[in-house]
């Protein structure tokens, strides 16, 4: 039988009358605390500190997540899932492609705005090249790229569609640039919090959507001959 999370704490350590807490709620409490501490101090935070913050014992923390790596990975996965749900639930299929993309952009920046600790965990140490958790971040990026690419395909905005050479790869490449731009701008935003989320989403929308519209109309930029050579 699982130990019950106890009510009444002193310095975060459980004491007093035991209160049975459902496993899913207990796990959420642990992840909530871990997410904040990981965002503040990175992977260097100790399991003792996380256990204290959650008002539980360290053995219980290990019983749920096996290791600090397991706990951090669970935090990253939870952030990935919440971000995906926010983006996918932002628009309905009966809206035009431009509106769907706008809603997805606004949902993304709203998530970053309201979930700063989650975004810091997800796109900070977790995304480090060759890091333990880079694959979880890459998985979310692939999902977001696929979502945007589908929206572009639904809008008929393949990069070279007008001259007959358009392919699904055009949409994937454009979606990859769009997702990368949003992630980079969101990281910049953490150091410039005064900028409204709507302004960021609108800037991305204007640069990409107006550019895509021009490409869809057959407008092409070509380098001067001297540069092209």
What does this structure look like?
The structure is a single chain. With 229 residues, the chain is an all-alpha fold. The chain folds into 2 domains: 9-66, Orthogonal Bundle (Arc Repressor Mutant, subunit A), CATH 1.10.10.60; 79-228, Tetracycline Repressor, domain 2. The protein is built from 10 helices and 2 strands, in the order E-E-H-H-H-H-H-H-H-H-H-H. It has a two-stranded antiparallel ribbon with strand order 1-2. Helix 3 packs across helix 4 (68-88). The radius of gyration is 22 Å and the shape is elongated. The termini are far apart.
In short:
With 229 residues, this protein is mainly α.
What gap, in angstroms, lies between the N and C termini?
73 Å
Q: How many domains, in number, for the residues?
A: 2
The CATH superfamily title of the largest domain: Tetracycline Repressor, domain 2
Please tell me what the overall shape is.
elongated
Number of beta-strand segments: 2
Structural class: mainly alpha
Kindly report the CATH topology of the largest domain.
Tetracycline Repressor, domain 2
> So, CATH architecture of the largest domain?
Orthogonal Bundle
Contiguous runs where pLDDT drops below 50 for at least 5 residues: 1-18, 159-165
The neighbouring-strand order within the major sheet is 1-2
Mean pLDDT: 80
Order of helices and strands: EEHHHHHHHHHH
CATH class of the largest domain: Mainly Alpha
Sheet of most strands: 2 strands, antiparallel
Number of separate helices: 10
CA radius of gyration: 22 Å
Percent range for β-strand residues: under 5%
Helix content: 55-70%
């Amino acid at each position: 039988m699982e130990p019950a999370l106890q009510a009444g704490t002193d310095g975060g350590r459980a004491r007093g009358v035991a209160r049975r807490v459902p496993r899913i709620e207990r796990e959420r409490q642990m992840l909530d605390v871990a997410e904040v501490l990981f965002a503040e101090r990175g992977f260097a935070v100790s399991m003792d500190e996380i256990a204290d913050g959650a008002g539980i014992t360290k053995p219980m923390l290990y019983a749920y997540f096996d290791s600090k790596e397991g706990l951090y990975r669970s935090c990253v996965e939870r952030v990935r899932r919440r971000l995906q749900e926010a983006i996918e639930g932002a628009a309905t299929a009966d809206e035009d492609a431009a509106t769907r993309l706008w809603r997805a952009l606004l949902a993304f920046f709203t998530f970053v705005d309201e979930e700063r600790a989650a975004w810091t965990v997800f796109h900070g140490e977790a995304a480090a090249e060759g890091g333990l958790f880079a694959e979880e971040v890459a998985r979310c990026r692939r999902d977001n790229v696929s979502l945007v690419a589908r929206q572009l395909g639904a809008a008929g905005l393949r990069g070279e569609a007008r001259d007959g050479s358009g392919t699904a790869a055009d949409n994937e490449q454009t979606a990859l640039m769009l997702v990368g731009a949003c992630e980079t701008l969101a990281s910049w935003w953490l150091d410039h919090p005064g900028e409204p989320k709507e302004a960021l989403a609108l800037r991305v929308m204007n640069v990409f959507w107006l550019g895509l519209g021009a490409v869809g109309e057959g407008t092409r930029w070509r380098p001067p001959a001297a540069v092209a050579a």
